[in-house]
## 1
Amino acid sequence: MTASNATAERNAASIAANVFSIAKIMLWINSGCNARCKSCDIWREKPGHSLTASQIRGWLPEWQELGLKTVVVCGEPLLHPKLWEIVAAIRDGGITVELLTNGFLLDRHATQVTQYIKELRVSLDGPEEIHNLMRGRRNAFEKLQDGIQAVRAIEPGFRIDGRCHIHHQNFRLMRETIKDAKRIGLSGLSFSGTDFSNAEAFRRADTINDEYSRLFNISGDALVELQQVLETLVEKHSDDFRSRFLTDSPEKLKHLILDYYRDLNGGARRHIKCNSPWTSAVIEYDGTVRPCFPMPAYGKIGDMGTLKQTLNSQCACESRVALDVTTNETCRRCVDQTLNLFSK
C-alpha cells in the first residue's frame, strides 16, 4: 500500500468515526408518560426525572458550535413543568423546535404551541376505537381531538401532522384512519411500520417476546392482505396523495410498510439508507446519549464530558466505524430510516 493510499484510508476512517456536525437532536426531556401504549413501556417509568432549562442553556453554545439546526422535543414533553422555558431557551439560541406529543394535554398548551413550535406532530394509532385501545385510554382520541381544535381556535392554519404506525391490529383500517385524521383536523398524515423487536427503543427490554411480536407483526396470509389494502388505498386516495394530505408517495408507503414486514418475515431485504448515527443524536432526560432510539447508548453527558466528547468517545467512534446500516439487524428492524441532509 502506498503512503497516499494509507493516508486516504486513515482519513476515511476518521470521517466515519468522528462527528463534526449535528443536524438534529431528539431531546427526551422527562421520564414517564400519561398514556399506556401497548407498543411502548416508557409509561412504566417513574415520572419526575427531567432536564432543566439551566442544563439546556449550558449546552446551547456547543450545540451552536456543532451547527445544530433542529431540536425535536419528545418523550411526553407536555408533562414537563418547565417545557416552555426550555423551548424558549432553544429558540433564543437560533435553533428550530419541533414537538412530538400524544396530544392528551395539547388543549392546555395550545397558545404556547402556536407561539413557539415550528412543527407539531401527534400520534394517531387508527380510527377512534383502535386509537383508544392502543393508547390504553378510553378517551385518548377525544383528548387528541380537543387539543387539535384548541390549536385551530387560536391559529386555524397551524400545521399539525399525524403519524400512524401500522401493525397487525390496524392495517385493515388504514382508510378509516385517514377519514378520522381528517375529522379531527390534522393537516397531514404519514404511516410507517411498527418496531416490535428493538429492545433499546421505548424501554421494552423486559417486554419483547414471541407473544408481544405476534400482537404487531404482519406475516403469512396477512402480508398478502396488506398488499391488497395498500393497493386499494393508493387507488381510492389518489387525491390525498396529490394534495399531500398523505405525506408519503405510494412508492415510499410500500417501502415503509409492505417491504418492511416482508423483510422481517424472511422476504427480500429492503434497501436501507440512513445517516442518523453520523448527523443526529438522542439526548435523554438523564443525559444519556444515543445515536438513535433503537441503538445502544454511548454514555452520559457529564460522565463522558460534553455532548461532542461523548459523540466522539472511543466506544462511539468504534460503533460508527463498524456500522453498516444496510446489513445491521437493528437498522433492518428500524421503522424510521432517515437521511439528514444539511449544508454547513
## 2
Amino acid sequence: MKKSKYYVVWKGREPGVYTSWDDCRQQVEGFAGAMYKAFETRAAADAALQEPPARHVFKKDKQPAASRRTGAGTPIHDSIVVDAAWNSVQKDMEYQGIFYKTGKRIFHNGPLANGTNNIGEFLAIVHALAYCQKHQLPTLPIYSDSRNAIGWVKQKKCKTNLEESARTQHIFELIRRAEQWLQQHTYRNPILKWETADWGENPADFGRK
C-alpha cells in the first residue's frame, strides 16, 4: 500500500497543507517563487507550515553527500539572497530578492522583455544593496549564485554582450541606473557566492529548471 504524504505550500496560490500531489501542483505550478515540500505525517506538515520555509526547503541535506564540496561552511541566515530567471519561451527576464531567514520576498522586478539572466543577476545585487542602504542595513550579507554578476558589481560595470538597440533600450536604462548607483554610493555589505553544491538551490530561485 502506498504511503500517504502531506504537501506543505508556503508560497503558492493558496498556502496550506494538501493531501495529494495533484492538489499541491495546482497551487505551485507556474507560480513564481513557489515554496513547497512533502512530509510523511500530517503533524509534521502542520508544524512546518507555521515555520519559515527556509528551514525546510533550502537545507544542505537536499544535495547527495557525494556531490557536496568541503570548506563552504553554512550560509548566514540573517542575509538577503537574490536570483534571476530567463524565460526561454517569452524571452523575458525577471529578478527577485528574499530574506533568507524568513523566506519573505522583499523585491521583484519583471518580467522585462529582451533581458538576459546575467543582467538580471547584476541588477538584483545592486537592488539589494540599495535596499540595504535605504533600510539602514549596512552590514547585511547579500548572496548570489552568479560569479559573473558578483564580479560586475565589484567592477561597477555590467559587462554584458547584449546589443543595445531600440528593443533593448529599457534594459540599458536599468543597467545605467545601476552602474550610476554603484559609482555614487559606497557600501559595506558583503557580496557572497551562494554555494549551490553544498547548500542546495538558491532560495530566491524561480523554480523553473
## 3
Amino acid sequence: MHNDPLIIAGKTYHSRLVVGTGKYRDFAETRAAIDASGAEIVTVAIRRTNIGQNAGEPSLLDAVPPSTFTILPNTAGCYTAEEAVRTLRLARELLDGHSLVKLEVLGDSNTLFPNVVETLRATETLVKEGFDVMVYTSDDPIVARQLEQLGCAAVMPLASLIGSGMGILNPWNLQIIIAEAKVPVLVDAGIGTASDAAIAMELGCDAVLTNTGIAGARDPVLMASAMRKAVEAGREAFLAGRMPKKIYRATPSSPQGGLVGTKAA
C-alpha cells in the first residue's frame, strides 16, 4: 500500500495503524507487538511511561527508539487543559523539540470520556505554541469541526469508551466527521479486535489507533499482526468501493444470458 500513504503534519507514513505502549508485560513484549503491527507511529503516555524523565529507570526509548519510530507523546491521565499543556511541554523537552503530540483531556476517571471544553482550551494553546496536535475527542461532528478550525493536525473521535473493546457504536456520526474533515480522521478508543479496525477503515477513516485491543489479547503479538491485516484490508475495501446494498432483491452472481440449454430469442 506504499502508493496510498497517510500524511500527518506534512510527514508521510505507510502504515495506517497507530499503536499504544501501555499494559504490556514488559518492554520486550511491547516491541514485539509493535513490530508485528507494522506501526510507524507509537503513542506514549508521558505521565505513566518513562522516556527519560525518571533518571536511572529503564526507558521505553531503549526498546522503541525515536530513530525507528515516530513517538507520539500523549496526555493520558490529564483532566484539565493546564495539566495537558504542561505534560506536552515536558514531552517536547524530553524529545528534543518534537512537535507531534496526542492531546486527550478526560472528563472523569470512570468513563474516560473526553472533556471537550478543556480539550478545546488546550488545543488553542498548543497550536499557538507550535505543536502539531492530534486530538482525542467525542464523536460529535460539531466539536470535530471546531478542533479542525483551531488548527489540529488530526481529529481522533472515539469509537466507544477507552479500553471497553465495544467497537464502533455510532458509525453514522463518524461518517459525518469523515465527510466534512480536511485533516486525517483516526478512530481512537474502543477497538477490541481486528474486525472493529476493518470496519473503521471501511467507513473511510484514515487510520486506527489501538492499545488495549492488542495488549489485552491473550496473544498480543498475534493480535497485533491481525490488526495490521485488518487495517490494510479495510482500507483496500474502502478504496475499492463496496457493492450497493439491495433489500428484498437477489441478483445472480453469474449472467443469465447464454445459459446451457436455452435458446436465443
